[in-house]
Structures are given as C-alpha cells and as structure tokens.
Design a protein that fits this description.
3 domains, mainly alpha, 363 residues
Length: 363
C-alpha cells in the first residue's frame, strides 16, 4: 500500500465529510458521514501498514479543488467524481493486498455497493430518498466534469493543429486567423449537431421501447404480473409475497410501467427529460472555449511572433486540461499535464511540418 493510496483514502474521507455537511436531507447526510468514517478507518489502517509515521492526514490539492467545485457548482458534481473513481481505487487496494499476500476481505468494493449496503441496513431510509440518491449519483458529477474537460481538449487540440498547419504554409500570415475562426465554427457546429442527434436518437429509441412495454401491460397483464413477481423474487422477496406485491402493483398501470421499464430495460423515465438543444449548446460552448485559445494571438499580431505566442498559450491550455483530467483519474498533476502537452505539441508539430512542405511546394 503506497502513500498515494493512503492519500486517496484521506481525500475520499474529506470529500464525503464535505458532502455530509452540505447535504440537506438528514438521512443521506448520515450516509455520507458514515462513508467518511469508513474511508478514515481505511486511511488509518493503510498508514500503519506502510510504516510511514510522517503521513499528514490532510486533503490534497486535488481534493480541495473538488471541494471548491462543489461550492461553486454544487456537491452533486463531487459525488459523481467520487463514485467514478471508486472502481480504480478498489482495484488498487486489491492489487496491493495481493502483492503483500493478504486476504481480500470484500471491504475493497466500490462506494456504490457500500452505500447501497448502508441504505439497506437503515430502516429509516425511505424509497423516495433511495431513488433520489440513486438518481443523483447516476446522472450528476463526474460525467459532466469529464465532458467539460474533454470538450475543451477536443477544441484546443484540433484547432491548434489546424492553425499550425496553416501557419507552416503561410509563415503565420493573416490567413491563419481566418482558418482558425473557420475551424472553431466548423468543429463546434459539428460537435453540437452530433450531440443533438445522439440525445434525440436515444430518446426516440427509449420512448419506443417504453411504448412497447405499456402495450404489453395492456394486452397481456397476466404475463406482466408474472414478470413483476419474478423481479421481486430476484430482490430476495419470498414467492408468495412477491406475487401479492405484483398483483397490487398492477392495479396502478403507470407504476407497474415505471418498474418494468427500469428493471427490464434499465431505463429511468426522468433521464428522458434531458434537452437535446441544451446538450448541443453545451457541446458547442465547450469546444469553442478550447478552440479559441490558439487563435487569440493572431487577433492582435501576425507572423512568427504570433506563432510563438499561440504555441505558448496552447501549451498552457494543454497543461491545464491535463491537470484537470486528474480530478477524476487521481493521477499525478505534473505527469498528466506534461503528457497532454507532449501529445498536443507533437500533433501541432506534425501539421506545421506538413503545412510548411505544402506551402513550399506551392510557391
């Protein structure tokens, strides 16, 4: 067990504590508080195993940054990032124990399973609170942050490479600015349209599946009642009680439909409320933010000087994006940042070289 893994546990304990503090629902706040205690216990145990008494039980810069994001955008984002990183954390714990030939006890499982176990053991958690909690940790957080970072990265890398290709062919002339703006608009519109089509197509598919499920309830209620009973039995309810619950549920067709849609199709009707236009605009803005970075110097200057400033601005942008990626990977900031810079500069150098060759041959 490395000091890095111990720090990961410390950060998780800190972030779950912050979630507990800022949670308005007392039951869910209690769950977060218990998770914080679990992680703190893991950190203490792992610290003893390392034999390093100099470990400071303080949150890292990454954890503090996530907490700041929570203050600004809401703590659902923090919860999403935490749950997204649980699989890698669990794998790291298991690998560490295997190397030390220690028994894997099962406590290494991800937080989603641990949280579910805590909920199941607490009689005061209502079905409404459970569904609210599951919806939040499924739809918020890590995915939104990841989409924002990767959207900006796509815009920056693609337009930076385009600009360097044109700059190589024209020695940084005024054509670069025109090409950069065109690349920004074309790329952002393409990403936006793709996102709109994706969300719209998914919704249409889900709506069709849901309609078929409702038709099955209408035309074959006996068969759907049996399916509901099997679902309840799979959740650990005895057969007689499961059939009683199924019959009672089928009295309300809308409720039966929601359960069957969720259990059979894996769909949540609330997720269908996502706006395709909102997703499209979101994608357009994120791509444009990244794509405008290499263009800015050419708005004021031209020639080789503009190329140098564009490379400098893009390098900084690439590093910040690489550092931001560590918010949901947990990797070293410098390693991730410089890796992003290396790949981005390599792509730009290749296009610059190709542009220079094409420009020379045309001349």
């Amino acid at each position: 067990m490395t000091n890095q893994n111990v720090q990961t546990e410390i950060d998780a304990s800190f972030l779950y504590h912050q979630l507990a503090i800022h949670e308005s629902d007392p039951v869910i706040a209690k769950i977060f508080a218990q998770m914080s205690e679990i992680e703190q216990g893991h950190a203490n145990a792992f610290a003893k195993k390392t034999g390093n008494t100099n470990i400071k039980f303080e949150p890292s810069l990454r954890a503090k940054t996530l907490n700041l994001i929570g203050h600004v955008f809401g703590y659902d984002y923090v919860l999403g990032v935490l749950l997204d990183t649980e699989k890698s954390l669990a794998n790291a714990l298991i690998v560490g124990k295997n190397k030390q030939k220690q028994k894997v006890s099962g406590s290494e499982t991800n937080h989603v399973k641990i949280l579910q176990a805590i909920i199941d053991q607490d009689q005061h958690v209502s079905g409404k609170q459970l569904s609210r909690f599951e919806r939040r940790h499924r739809t918020m957080g890590g995915n939104a942050i990841r989409a924002a970072v990767l959207g900006g990265n796509d815009g920056l890398v693609s337009n930076f490479s385009l600009i360097m290709g044109i700059a190589g062919a024209t020695n940084g002339g005024n054509e670069v600015l025109l090409a950069g703006v065109a690349g920004l608009l074309a790329g952002a519109l393409s990403m936006s349209l793709g996102e709109w089509i994706s969300v719209t197509s998914s919704r249409e598919l889900y709506e069709n599946q849901m309609q078929l499920e409702m038709e099955e309830i209408e035309t074959n209620p006996e068969g759907e009642t049996k399916e509901l009973a099997l679902i309840y039995m799979a959740k650990g309810i005895d057969e007689a009680k499961a059939h009683e619950l199924a019959i009672e549920t089928m009295k309300d067709k809308s409720q039966a439909h929601s359960i069957l849609v969720k259990e059979e199709l894996g769909l949540d009707t609330e997720e269908l409320s996502a706006s395709a236009w909102e997703a499209a605009i979101y994608s357009f803005v994120l791509f444009a933010i990244g794509a405008i970075i290499p263009i800015i110097p050419f708005m004021f200057i031209s020639g080789f000087t503009a190329v140098v400033f564009s490379v400098a601005a893009s390098t900084l942008g690439l590093f910040l994006i690489g550092a931001a990626i560590t918010l949901f990977t947990g990797r070293n900031v410098w390693h991730s940042g410089f890796r992003q810079v290396l790949f981005g500069l390599a792509a730009a150098a290749i296009t610059f070289g190709i542009g220079h060759l094409i420009g020379a041959s045309i001349s």
